[in-house]
């Protein structure tokens, strides 16, 4: 019996010793998730689609040769509005600076664009026997922006808003053929305009260097006027159309941060 008591005390002592040693061992702190740092320069590319706002059909008629006398009663000017739309693509370069969860930055981009549309209407003049063909087109050939950006980072997910300067080349055509008067007018215009842009989007970091995202912009490139003059040589006869070039742009972007 005495031997059993001594054995039991030895086992208990050994267990207490192991427990004490375990209590003295340092415990590991929980592993904290590494926060992504958006600070740095980046470059990238993008591809997307743009759809323009409806261009106006505000007309000014100069008619010293009286080609258009009574024209309003015969059908008048019914130029259809057009809304340029199409694919686009380009590149961007920018810089982000992160303070806490707030990310500040600037970005410049340049886009080649196929945003265009043309339309023609046949106005039934003189009871429909001599329809007048009226047509015009509008196109945004390229554009760029210089914007400030501010966002709020959720680790590697960064939603943001942006705004700033927009610029681009716009072009348009204007045509009119009036059989009963012999008038045939045609004209085209192509100018570089400056305006403004506002937008929003998000970036998602895949690695420390690579990120992808979606970017939306509203562009306003201002007004441009195209004038059609008489191709038959009658001096002074012309029609001018004032058009307002705007666009909505949605792009998929990919960036590399240095």
Describe the structure.
It is a single chain. This protein is mostly beta strands and 258 residues long. The chain has one domain (39-257): Porin (Beta Barrel), CATH 2.40.160. It is 10% helix and 63% strand. The chain has helices spanning 2-24, 71-74, and strands at 40-52, 58-62, 85-99, 102-123, 132-152, 157-178, 183-205, 210-230, 238-257. An eight-stranded antiparallel barrel has the order 1-3-4-5-6-7-8-9. Strand 6 and strand 7 form a beta hairpin. The model is unreliable at 1-25 (pLDDT under 50).
Q: Order of strands across the biggest sheet?
A: 1-3-4-5-6-7-8-9
Examine the coordinates and then state which fold CATH places here, giving the name of the CATH topology. Answer: Porin
Helix content: 10-25%
Instruction: Report low-confidence residues grouped into runs of 5 or more.
Output: 1-25
Strands, helices and their partners?
Layout: H1 2-24, E1 40-52, E2 58-62, H2 71-74, E3 85-99, E4 102-123, E5 132-152, E6 157-178, E7 183-205, E8 210-230, E9 238-257
Antiparallel strand pairs: 1-3, 1-9, 2-9, 3-4, 4-5, 5-6, 6-7, 7-8, 8-9
